[in-house]
Amino acid sequence: MTVHTTGQAPARSRRRTHVPEPYDFRRPMTMAREHARVLEMAFETFARQWGNQLTARLRAMAQVTLDGLSLQTYDEYVRGLPGTTAMMLCTIEQTRQTAVVQVPVSATMVWIDYMLGGPGTGDAREERELTEIELTLLRGVMGAALGDLGYAFSSLTPLDVTLRSVQYNPQFVQAVPASDAVLVATFLMRVGEREDVTTVMFPAEVLLAAVRQADGAGSRSLEDQRAHELAVLDLEAAVEDVPVEVAVRFAPVVVRPRDVVGLSVGDVVPLSHPSSQPLDVVVDGVVLARAAAGNNGSRLACMVVTVEEKP
Q1: What residues contact 207, with CB distance under 8 A and at least 6 apart?
Q2: Structural domain of 292
């Protein structure tokens, strides 16, 4: 009997099926799954409360549902918005940072139409800006909705958000630096027979820091917590004993390059610092105090007259 054997076919080289895509290493990292779920639950609570608020104020059936939560850069967020839309810039009172609630202009006009007793037809012109009266009505609706944000996140962190202004061109709104990471919650909003997509944007670190802190505090035992507190105290004590260089400086003077190149022994460089003005006491480029020049025995010295920290 003849047995025929077939050799193993040589492995074929795998061909690329698509063009490699460049990866931007500046883009934010992904969220941990458990952290994302905690934030989703908070935004889902906010969505339910927002829908209830709209139903009560517009006297029309309204429903808001969370459609997604993503971590991206602010530039990516803005590029994904319509060319004209209502961007409600809000102040986060705890950190003085800016959050954004974005709603199509035509959707806000439907709200206003309902509030004024109309059938909810609104105005389909997206490029039209709101009048002062319409803005006042919108502030009333959004004030209650932003209050619900604090309720939704109360288990994580205090969050007081107030409406500051309304802008209409996202490309010209610099709420946060373009490369900063932001959390974007996308909602499907249904008011009457109309359905719109709205977004809420927060600087990522505001919410992620709260989630991480809550997660860390919940997973620590009492012994771990005490050890952490002792470590913090030791670190603070060590930092207080670190030597730092303190400088006293006059007000700067502007000179031309040719004056610097031509300096020689005996030249006098006039300063613009008035003799009655105190000197700056500086640590690492930060002005911490002001002092008057003097001496202490045979050494030059200065006496602090005011303490003021400048950024």
Answers
A1: 39, 153, 156, 157, 183
A2: 245-252+276-311
Q: Which of 139, 136, 111 is nearest to 55 (CA)?
A: 111
Q: Under the phi-then-psi rule, with left for phi > 0, alpha for psi from -120 to 50, and beta for the rest, what region is 176? A: beta
For residues 68 and 199, give the distance between their C-alpha atoms in angstroms, rounded to a whole number: 10
Position 9 in a domain:
no
Spell out the per-residue pLDDT of the chain, length 311, in tens.
444 444 444 445 455 556 776 666 555 567 788 888 999 999 999 999 999 999 999 989 999 999 999 999 999 999 999 999 999 999 999 888 999 999 999 999 999 999 998 888 877 776 788 899 999 999 999 998 999 998 999 888 899 999 999 999 998 998 999 888 999 999 999 998 899 999 999 999 889 888 888 776 555 667 877 887 888 898 888 888 889 899 998 888 888 888 888 888 988 888 888 878 899 898 888 888 989 888 888 888 888 988 875 54
Find the CATH number of the domain harbouring 177: 3.40.1550.10
Task: Specify the pairing of strand 62-73 against strand 279-283.
Answer: unpaired
Q: Provide the whole-model pTM.
A: 0.62
